[in-house]
Design a protein that fits this description.
It contains five helices and 17 strands. The protein has a six-stranded mixed β-sheet with strand order 11-10-17-16-15-14. A five-stranded antiparallel β-sheet has the order 8-7-6-3-9, with no helix packed on it. The protein has a two-stranded antiparallel sheet with strand order 1-2. It has two domains: 193 residues, Nuclear Transport Factor 2, Chain: A (Roll), CATH 3.10.450; 70 residues, SH3 type barrels (Roll), CATH 2.30.30. The two termini are 34 Å apart. The longest helix is centred in the middle third of the chain and has 15 residues.
Length: 274
């Protein structure tokens, strides 16, 4: 159960999995030695190079939805980027930027991992309480927290060291444009995103694992293809009964694993538009 103010949300449990009480234990750990591609568009490929770095020669490429990638265990730091050596699908080895890899976890493994309940509980509580330190403890230690004000808008990246101050930082940010217009959404996290997240979390939302819930919208509502290998939970506040059918809001929360431990990487905001 995820507490939302004085309310609670029950995270869904896969029908193929037994009902499990949320209580972290060593047996709830999930181990994987495979990786999958992320942040690569469906019309692109991830270039594998040798040696590491953008100046390296292309020796192979990986599809945007490639899974089952194995690492050799070698890595190198190039500026602010970490490059890792992988075994290519056709044989041989090469290097890719680790930003474009995520630990490969099957949806049924992810949706049955009770540790995610505790992670989301802390995340939601930290948003409601505006507790930056608690929020910081939930996010990806390398990516930080990445937010999209609509799935088609650009990523806004809060690096790990910036997350703890997200509620007090009033720096104006360009979050992208309103759907179907050229009007830019500009303001701080506190001004723009916080009220919309509170609107969902305080409304006894519907919750799904790896499934988008949306109301009526002209823009559609999809989990971005470049994040297709990333597991996620969705929180949906439906439109009021008998009210404006466009007045709904959804948050998609993308979760990645590092050393088999879940972390929140991405929050994507969806809403109705006329």
């Amino acid at each position: 159960m995820v507490p939302i103010g004085i309310k609670t949300i029950a995270l869904p449990t896969p029908t193929t999995q037994p009902q499990i009480q949320v209580s972290p234990s060593p047996s709830s750990g999930i181990e994987t030695d495979s990786y999958a591609v992320v942040w690569v568009g469906s019309e692109e490929t991830l270039i594998v190079r040798k040696p590491a770095g953008l100046s390296g020669i292309a020796v192979s490429d990986l599809a945007y939805d490639q899974r089952g990638i194995k690492l050799t265990g070698s890595s190198t730091q190039l500026g602010s980027s970490t490059w890792v050596e992988i075994h290519t699908p056709a044989g041989g080895t090469g290097w890719v930027n680790s930003w474009n890899l995520t630990e490969d976890l099957l949806p049924i493994q992810f949706c049955g991992d009770t540790r995610v309940n505790s992670l989301i509980e802390t995340f939601v509580s930290s948003v409601i309480d505006q507790d930056g330190e608690a929020l910081s403890s939930t996010v990806h230690p390398e990516r930080g927290l990445i937010i999209r004000h609509d799935w088609w808008n650009p990523d806004v990246i809060f690096v790990p060291d910036a997350v703890s101050g997200i509620f007090s930082d009033l720096t104006e940010i360009d979050w992208g444009v309103l759907g179907g217009s050229e009007f830019h959404i500009v303001g701080s996290f506190r001004q723009i995103m916080l009220p919309q997240m509170e609107d969902v979390f305080l409304a006894s939302p519907e919750v799904k694992c790896n499934e988008i819930i949306a109301g009526v919208t002209n823009q559609g509502a999809i989990w971005p293809t470049e994040l297709g290998n990333m597991n996620f939970y969705v929180f949906h506040r439906p439109s009021p009964e008998g009210g404006n059918k466009y007045d709904w809001r959804t948050l998609g929360i993308g979760i990645e694993y590092i050393d088999s431990q879940p972390n929140i990487s991405v929050v994507i905001h969806y809403r109705g538009d006329i």
